[in-house]
Design brief:
Helix content: 25-40%
Strand content: under 5%
Number of strands: 0
Distance between the termini: 15 Å
Length: 45
């Protein structure tokens, strides 16, 4: 599954830690699908 958030995408070019951005995205998705709270984050590449 691919997740996307305009708010979090806006932070990509800042000094934010990518791992923190991933955590924020997971937390945001968890509000819609609670099971995402236990999901692992995988970055392709």
């Amino acid at each position: 599954m691919v997740l996307h958030s305009r708010e979090i995408d806006a932070l990509i070019d800042t000094d934010q830690d990518p791992a923190e951005l991933a955590r924020l995205l997971r937390e945001s998705a968890r509000h819609v699908v609670p099971e995402f709270g236990n999901a692992r984050i995988h970055s392709p590449g």
